[in-house]
Specification:
About 50% of the residues lie in helices and about 10% in strands. It is built from 22 helices and 13 strands. It is a multi-pass membrane protein.
């Protein structure tokens, strides 16, 4: 039997489609029934707490075609779906989209009228179900009062059967972070899109990865919502069971990109009977249709020009481009409320992320105490000078590499970020600012936890001013490393690639820091690495901070007098001037530069992967 699956890339192309795709593969797209008795098993909560119902919108697509890698996926498909219906859609720019018989000319109109639930549940696992919906309400319902947002969230929790798990973490469904069940997580994704109450809801395989019970619950929920709220719900589904078919009235079956059937189940059974086939008892009509798809396609060719378009007397209130431009221009200003919401969310995630919060703080304390125990009370002699240099170099290597553990967290957040920013929840610049505001104080605490034990146990420059600058330097090192990891997480496609990229970059920076190879010995083609190395400037700053106030102090003497002063130590490293604050400025510039690069890359990805 041929594979039964769907293509439901809603208003944006899928990431990849194999070029060796089998031509026999067919696509089934379903729409919900109008029959009231088909919703008897669904939740009745929708009718108990009705929401304001928007205007009814029908969705019509004409000349729907899609080709990728020279493989035709859809070919001139026409269809329409009305309120209380569910239907799956893929879109190519050559298609014509009509909503209430009015042509859609730009994506802003689609975003205003449509909500999109992707196949993967891109949610933050360390937020509770209610927190997830509340933050979505804060981003989407900006003109509503706090009370209205709270009521909207409470209504959705009741309507989608999430009241009992509203204080549970969303989780990821794995062994370490299970959270809510798969069906509940899918309902949370649906609730996030329903926050702004869109008249048209699009879902890409909402039952994917769910067991039969949860799949049935999700379909019942969608069917009941479409019927009682008169929403136009468009969704794709993979191999529906008998019980799921009970909630479906119309079927759009595609083969090789063309329509081979559109109508109810009885119509499909009649078409199969006219071809001389009998449906086996162990198969439902849809499954059997996949086995005789070639015969159905041949018999349907004569009716291929039949239009499925239907008109509607309702009209759509189009928002002109000037209005949209003004809104976008206003949104480009500094949005304090938007940043504050993101800061609040970041703080909760930092506190709840054990591998980031607890591990990072413990790592700083243990490393500080460990290094202090190794370099306890260094002497002020020539051997002590060499040991101090080794301490500074190792500390830099540890501090810069210790931020790699944040990479999987950034990669996970990137999926959520792309989804939320592409639909206009907030701007990427607001995300970057909020990320900075939330992480800077936390990283300062980490720098203190490392600096205090290592500085005083080792016995570095006892000046309070020198200690304060050492803490500042450690803080800036961690901030630079955090920005670098954030930037590389925007570039890397996955954790393995990102980890390899970070290790390679940090290794190159360390090699050309001036610690292993003096500046004079670095080949000219590689000299630029000396100036962009994140190790160079903090290493120089630590050395100057340690010896500048001790320039006249003798670190090695003999019968001939003092052989090595603090000034001599600095001169051997090419440090004749106090460059500490210049280096501070450079380190701050690196911190901002890598975040700016990250912002640019994420912004470009957001535009290229724009969705509803």
């Amino acid at each position: 039997m041929n594979n039964t699956h769907t293509m439901a890339s809603c208003f944006h192309p899928p990431p990849s489609v194999s070029t060796n795709r089998r031509e026999e593969d067919s696509i089934i797209l379903f729409s919900a029934s109008n029959s009231p008795d088909e919703y008897s098993s669904a939740s009745s909560s929708f009718s108990s707490s009705p929401l304001p119902t928007p205007n009814r919108y029908s969705l019509t697509v004409a000349n729907l075609s899609y080709t990728i890698h020279h493989v035709t996926i859809l070919k001139s498909v026409n269809f329409t779906t009305q309120p209380s219906k569910l239907l799956a859609v893929a879109l190519d720019p050559s298609s014509t989209i009509l909503i209430n018989n009015a042509r859609i000319s730009n994506n802003n109109q689609l975003r205003r009228l449509c909500g999109f639930v992707p196949q993967d549940d891109d949610l933050l696992p360390l937020l509770t179900v209610k927190e997830t919906l509340m933050y979505s309400a804060k981003f989407s319902l900006r003109d509503s009062t706090a009370k209205d947002k709270e009521e909207r969230v409470e209504t959705l929790l009741r309507d989608l059967g999430l009241v009992l798990v509203q204080d549970s973490f969303v989780g990821e469904g794995d062994e370490e972070d299970r959270g809510v069940s798969g069906g509940e997580r899918k309902r949370v994704s649906i609730a996030v899109e329903m926050i702004r109450d869109p008249p048209i809801l699009l879902l890409d395989e909402p039952t994917s990865g769910l067991d039969s019970r949860n799949s049935l619950q999700v379909v019942e929920l969608l069917a009941n919502m479409a019927k009682t709220k008169q929403r136009t719900v468009v969704f794709s589904i993979h191999q529906p069971s008998y019980r799921i078919l009970d909630h479906i009235s119309d079927y759009l079956i595609l083969s090789r990109g063309s329509v081979i059937h559109f109508g109810n189940l009885e119509h499909l059974e009649d078409s199969i009977a006219k071809l001389g086939f009998q449906i086996p008892e162990q198969l439902n009509p849809i499954e059997f249709a996949m086995e005789i798809v070639d015969s159905l396609r041949d018999s349907n060719q004569t009716d291929s020009s039949r239009s499925l378009l239907s008109s509607s007397s309702a009209s759509i209130e189009n928002e002109n481009d000037d209005t949209i431009a003004k809104k976008q221009e206003f949104r480009s200003l500094f949005d304090v409320a938007e940043i504050s919401f993101l800061c609040s969310r970041f703080c909760k995630i930092i506190y709840r992320t054990k591998q980031l919060f607890l591990a990072r703080t413990m790592q700083a304390v243990v490393a500080g105490l460990g290094l202090g125990s190794v370099y306890t009370r260094l002497k002020r002699d020539e051997e002590g000078v060499a040991e101090r240099l080794g301490l500074f170099a190792f500390s830099l290597s540890f501090l810069l590499s210790s931020t790699v553990e944040a990479l999987p967290i950034y990669l996970r957040e990137r999926r959520v970020l792309m989804k939320e920013t592409s639909r206009g929840s907030y701007r990427i610049s607001s995300y970057m600012i909020a990320n900075t505001i939330a992480f800077v104080p936390f990283l300062f605490v980490v720098s203190l936890l490392f600096s205090i034990p290592v500085y005083w146990i080792v016995g570095l420059n006892p000046s309070v001013h020198a200690f304060s600058f050492f803490v500042l330097c450690v803080w800036l090192i961690i901030l630079m490393a955090s920005s670098l990891v954030l930037f590389l997480s925007a570039v890397a496609p996955d954790f393995i690639s990102g980890n390899s990229l970070i290790c390679t970059v940090l290794g190159a920076f360390f090699l050309f820091s001036g610690y292993f190879i003096p500046k004079e010995k670095i080949p000219k083609p590689w000299m630029f690495m000396y100036y962009v190395s994140l190790y160079r400037y903090p290493l120089e700053s630590m050395l100057v901070n340690e010896y500048w106030s001790l320039r006249k102090e003798c670190f090695s003497g003999g019968d001939m007098g003092c052989l090595l002063t603090g000034e001599d130590v600095l001169r051997k490293r090419g440090l004749d001037k106090d460059t500490r604050w210049i280096n501070v400025g450079i380190m701050l510039a690196f911190f901002v530069f890598y975040r700016f690069l990250c912002w640019g890359i994420l912004l470009r990805k957001s535009y290229s992967k724009s969705t509803l």
